[in-house]
Amino acid sequence: MVDYLRINQANWDARVPVHLDSDFYDVAGFKAGGSALRPFELAEVGDVAGRSLAHLQCHLGLDTLSWARLGAEVTGLDFSGAAIEQARSIAAECGLPARFVTADVYDAPRALGETYDIVYTGVGALVWLPDLTRWAEAVAALLNPGGFLYLAEFHPFTNVLDDDTGATVIRDYFDRTPQVWDYPYSYTGSQTLEHRTSVQFEHGLGDVVSAIAAAGLRLEFLHEHDHTLFRRFTDLVEADGGYRRPDGAPRIPLMYSLRASAR
Questions:
Q1: Residue 39 lies in a domain
Q2: Is this model's pTM higher than 0.90 or not?
């Protein structure tokens, strides 16, 4: 296998200054009191006040700190030291208590050294991990008895469709070959990245659920959503703070979310 970890760390370190300046992340809006969380996440996770929460693959920490604003005792983990440095800076500027740790997600139990009521992860996180079994085992090791994993992700079905209209199947849903991308931009805009190569891994919905079950977690729900966070296909229209197929058009799953509890 290619050295995905080294390649992706360089790529994500390069994304940090680009994302900080982007409208997509709207760091200024967050510092002014905004939240990076989506309404369906808030409804599905529920009250977090006084609960310990670990956010895996936290990037700039905006989601992490959004949970802190709701009263959670938060820890964020990411493999990009540049991102963690910025997360700490944003937390300090906003006066939000938070712990941020630089580590690979597979090393999270050792790196964090404690357990939590909630492990939160997403969006767009799993595509960077080659082994979901190891990931789910790390999640299970981080949970207190009765605690739960909450995952919100882009639906893997969208990746088999053409990138324009999403009307035609052009890729193999069951292909698990690592995908090496050479692309000069991030998803936030047109600033050129210093390190443009990345390695990604496709996982089907069954892969995710099976890994979670094998790690001993009990699935509470799996929800498929007909909306997403950006205009994934050209025919998507803005609605309720996201994007979905226009009225009357056949709907497809664009995102999913699940919750699984430790026994």
A1: no
A2: yes
Domain membership of residue 44 (yes or no) is: no
Cα gap 36→260, rounded to integer Å: 22
Q: pLDDT per residue over 164-217, tens digit each?
A: 999 999 999 999 999 999 988 898 887 889 999 999 999 999 999 999 999 999
Compute the C-alpha angle 120/69/62, nearest 5°.
55
* CATH code, domain carrying 137: 3.40.50.150
Tokens of 180: 């090496």
Residue 112 located in a structural domain: yes
Residue range(s) defining the domain that contains residue 72: 4-34+49-261
Neighbouring CB atoms inside 10 A of 169's CB total 11
**Residue 64 — very low, low, confident or very high, per pLDDT cuts 50/70/90?**
very high
